[in-house]
Amino acid sequence: MKKQPTQLAYLLPNFFTASSIFAGIYSMISAIEGNFALAAWMVLLSLIFDGLDGRVARLTNTCSRFGVEFDSLADIVAFGAAPAILLYLYVGHDFGRFGIMASALFVIFGGIRLARFNVMTGENEPSVFIGVPIPTAAVFISILVLLFEKYSFLAEYKVVILLIALLVAVLMVSNIRYPSFKKVDMGKKHIRRVFVVIVAVAMIFFIYPVEGFATFFTLYILYGPLRSVVTLSKRSRLLK
Q: Which of 75, 51, 77, 68 shows the shortest CA–CA distance to 10?
């Protein structure tokens, strides 16, 4: 007979979800105080907590409708409002209404992305994402801030972050497909290869954390549109 999880076990994944919200709020406070680097790192910390809550829920067999809804509300705070505040205070306020629009659209389109994900997703985890996931979009913007903070010569090109934020916001509500790493084949046949890749990537991130994350998320963001272009190109050739 399968043992039922205790009531206390149900609190564990929700604790990580609450921690994600806390990190998002701390990010906003840090941005308001002008500590943009800390604000950006807090968004990355939210991503870690966001990844843990679902996995802990599945491991402890404590998945619930409440947990799903709580996670979505946490995401709009940590990956919608927090990066939008960081975006506006770091660069948006220098561009008036355009800065307000870019920051607002990031949250609005992020909310639409979350709502669509909740409606389309059943009990099983999807093998692909339709549109850029909002946590990925939020972390990408935060990494750009860290990159611009680290390399001072980029300061005069801050408007690029606003333009990229608008592009990523549109990609969130697009129908472009992105890979989900939640279903990576971890069978015995591939486990050694996956382990070697993870260790190699971890070492690169350890030596060059900002540059490593920036490269990884840039490649991930570009993968979707490039894959769509290749797919359309193949289809057009077949139709000729």
A: 68
